[in-house]
């Protein structure tokens, strides 16, 4: 699962540079933690080109009580809520990293050391709302949580957004190993 992610100043500059290089200037909503229901930058298709946009994180639930913020990669085409979005409106959510909490409520942050921007797979609806696609956690995240965002490599951005066959392959891949850190970890005497 991914319930919060973050963008720092350096990453915001990188995201702005990426968006400018693929089309137009995009005014980012700001830096810091991004929570469900907040506006955030995404990269999506615009005709034949990629473009940056600002969207809201989360699809309203049918009962209008709460938001759906994640979609499982393994069943995304089986769920009516996500099927059309995953087929026709895929996007990438750029971030510095994301957070997960373990059973003891300890917060861990996850980042990639080799890239300044972490690209998470997503899809969006006709109301410009997006969800983050999650997959089974790899060994760097599994000690804390059993789910994690599906990570897109920088050279896969266009394939994810435009190529249906490649996107299907990406949905089944194992994400790269990430760096984990926590400010506080419960100590055990035994």
The chain-level mean pLDDT equals 89
Number of strands: 15
Helical segment count: 4
Question: What's the overall geometry?
Answer: globular
Percent of residues in beta strands? 35-45%
Strand order, sheet with most strands: 2-1-9-10-15
**Biggest sheet descriptor:** 5 strands, antiparallel
Distance between the termini: 30 Å
**Element-level helix/strand string:** EHEEEEEEHEEEEEEEHHE
Which structural class is indicated by helix and strand composition? alpha+beta
Using only C-alpha atoms, the radius of gyration works out to 16 Å
Helicity, as a percent range: 10-25%
Account of the protein in words:
This protein has 190 residues and is an alpha+beta fold. It has helices at residues 9-21, 80-88, 157-162, 164-171, and strands at 5-7, 32-34, 39-46, 49-57, 59-60, 67-68, 70-72, 90-95, 97-101, 107-111, 118-124, 129-136, 147-149, 151-152, 179-181. Strands 2-1-9-10-15 form a five-stranded antiparallel beta sheet. A five-stranded mixed β-barrel has the order 3-4-12-11-8. A two-stranded antiparallel sheet has the order 5-6. A hairpin with a 2-residue loop joins β3 and β4. The protein is globular, with a radius of gyration of 16 Å. The chain starts with a strand and ends in a 9-residue tail after the last strand. The model has no long low-confidence stretch (mean pLDDT 89).
């Amino acid at each position: 699962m991914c319930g919060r992610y973050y963008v720092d100043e350096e990453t915001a500059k990188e995201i702005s540079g990426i968006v400018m290089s693929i089309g137009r200037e995009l005014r980012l909503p700001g830096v810091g933690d991004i929570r469900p229901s907040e506006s955030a930058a995404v990269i999506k298709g615009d005709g034949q080109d990629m473009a940056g946009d600002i969207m809201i994180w989360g699809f309203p639930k049918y009962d209008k009580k709460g938001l759906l913020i994640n979609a499982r990669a393994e069943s995304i085409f089986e769920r009516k809520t996500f099927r059309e979005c995953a087929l026709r409106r895929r996007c990438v959510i750029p971030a510095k990293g994301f957070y997960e909490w373990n059973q003891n409520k300890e917060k861990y942050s996850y980042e990639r050391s080799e890239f300044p921007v972490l690209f998470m797979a997503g899809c969006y609806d006709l109301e410009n709302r997006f969800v983050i696609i999650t997959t089974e956690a790899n060994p760097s995240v599994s000690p804390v949580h059993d789910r994690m965002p599906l990570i897109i490599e920088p050279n896969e951005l266009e394939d994810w957004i435009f190529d249906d066959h490649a996107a299907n392959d990406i949905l089944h891949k194992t994400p790269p190993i990430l760096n984990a850190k926590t400010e506080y970890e419960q100590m055990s005497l035994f």
